[in-house]
Task: structure prediction
Amino acid sequence: MKRRAILAFMLDRPGVLNKVSMLIRKKMYNVDTLTVCSSRKPGVSRMTITLREDDQARVNQVIRQLEKFTEVISVKELDTDHSYWREVAIVKLEVDGMHLESFRDRYNFEILNQQANEICILQVAGSTRNIDAFLDEVGQEHIIEIARTGVTALEK
Amino acid sequence: MTGKELLLKALKEKGVKFVFGYTGGAIMPVFDEMDKLGTFRFIMSRHEQGAAFMAQGITRASLSTDEPQIGVCMATSGPGAMNLVTGIADAYMDSVPIIAVTGQVATGVIATDAFQESDVVGVMLPISKQTYMPLRADEVEKNVHEAFYVARTGRGGPVVLDVPKDVQNQLVAENYYFDAMNFRPILPGFFYHPTPAREPLQRAIDLINRSERPVLFCGHGVINSNAGKLLQEFAEKVNIPVAFTLHGISALPADHPLSLGMMGMHGTVEANRAIMEADLLIAFGMRFDDRVTGKLNEYARNADVIHVEIDPSEIDKNVATSVAINADVYRTLHVLLGDPMLTYKPRRRWRERISGFRQVIAEELRQEIASGVGDAGKLLMKTVVHQLSELTQGRDLIVADVGQHQMMAARFYNYQTTNSWFASGGAGTMGCSLPMAIGVKLARPAERVWSISGDGGFQMNAQELGTIMEQQLNVKIIILNNGYLGMVRQWQSLFFDGRYAGTPMLSPDFGLLSQAYGIPYRKVERLEDVAPALQQAIDHQGAMMLEFVCDPSELILPMIPAGGGFEDMIIRRPQPAGSASDSEGGES
Ligand SMILES: Cc1ncc(C[n+]2csc(CCOP(=O)(O)OP(=O)(O)O)c2C)c(N)n1
Ligand SMILES: [Mg+2]
Result:
């Protein structure tokens, strides 16, 4: 199913996140990712939700119902052609440094910690697909733990 | 001043006259203050659900008067608030603005599972337009004013204020200042479009002028925006018949020559057949609920749809529109009526076609109503409703419960007064009628109010007889007693091989019950007693209960089976296997 990103600005009031997630549950979606941060305007939050849906009419429904919340200021769908979708992953893995170096030119990662010989913590930023590919290439067998932020998106 | 004083001051400023409710630990300070003030008429319900429906009655009935009010109900924390839930969910489904004020445990113990603590905001979020929990006394007034604004702006709905007990008692600072007159809530994304845009309106007019087989839809939005008169004018001007949703009923006189009656699951043959064959549907203030459309992919396949609706999220939700007009119904009709391009078209063939639809079962219905009794010689609900309609000349206010009797009251009362029909539609909450009728009566004291319930639904909020007794309210109570949860029985007889699981019901002696509340009562079993009994209730100065012993096998027809399309409409009672088919050629 097609992945969708919905960007919403809303007043930072108690219960808003609750309402948004309740609406998405009511519409029978499983949220893929949901990120919230403060926007440049004090008191206004910025939320990026990704979910999977092929039917454009259903996506429009979600958007219109989000717009109905008194706290919500604006909502729009972002498509991949006209926006950047990015996430960050922090990965703890057991791998030797040389192996990692071979990915340098293709992936945007930064080593945060490499105390013990072979245990390394790094951070990698990019599109979801890019991070997935990185993890696959490094080798899932080397990975101990991953923390991913979920997608945040910005219009071109 | 304290939180509770500010709360009551704000309610007063918002024009509240009645407070319906039930006290308890966490709301006691507010009740105490209310008693001291004496500015509100407090009406104690016998169950918090009753209070919520009474508040609905106030809002629904007063919106067409010179003094529209928003109903207010009040309850204590925990169980009190939870008992409001059904009434609030019902108001949400039917877009009825009400304000529910609940007491909450003190801020110091919130989230400790304190005595009678419930997460009211959490429970109410998905069934209300907005919830507020002021955490300081100086937030209370602002919250109340914003609550009223949100409740009635755009599409209406319930708003909940959950006020912790310590906040009720807290004093505001010396320099506290709130300018109620000039208060405007800061809600940058919360706006609505009352006025229709030019471009879609032009396309709509074009479609209307070109259409050969158009039908107008009159929904709740017509009632809510007080646009009944305008819709009638519009229908007459363009010569287009009008079909009603359950909540559109009584926007214009039921016997208007252009009226097709109710549409949808239990709609009339003429409404549903016309919709099936229409080339254009012009929908005002409605949401194409599944009880209206039946199976969506078969719905009005050859019709363009013009949808005028205040809530943008309802447009294109169930039915794809050709022209979407996101605006207030009243304003849209006002603009349309002023447009010189709009033309009258005779549409003779469409009119003849529709008169044909009107004739399909008209004669049988007339005979059935006249015969007045069913198989076992018991009364027919439709006859009782018809006689009530005749006696009152269709001028009274009818508050129905949920079930077969509700559909009979929707179909067979000849509504003449604007906004004279009240029911639970979207939620279909049994038990709503008796308490809602109390609110309706208080909002429109000069008019006669009839609460019509089934034996099942009546017993869901029968305790509100206590409220009627205490407040000496002149509500006429009709119980159409068929000994069954009739509407469910109807489905069982049509789709469950006549197995009546969980629907036969033993009722108490309603005469003794009403006697216990000091309310006069009459039981009616024979056709010739129907009109005299109704007349007796009319003549009696005060509440009176009439119980009609009704035929359990009476069906409300036509019926479009759930999930079926308009083609599947059942028009006549199916004959038992083996007997002659009653289908005639020419109409299906
Ligand atoms: C609170 C609630 N519970 C259950 C239902 C399901 N239901 C719809 S109609 C109906 C039967 C109503 O029976 P009664 O009040 O006797 O009215 P009748 O249909 O017999 O006229 C039932 C059980 C409902 N609508 N509301
Ligand atoms: Mg019954």
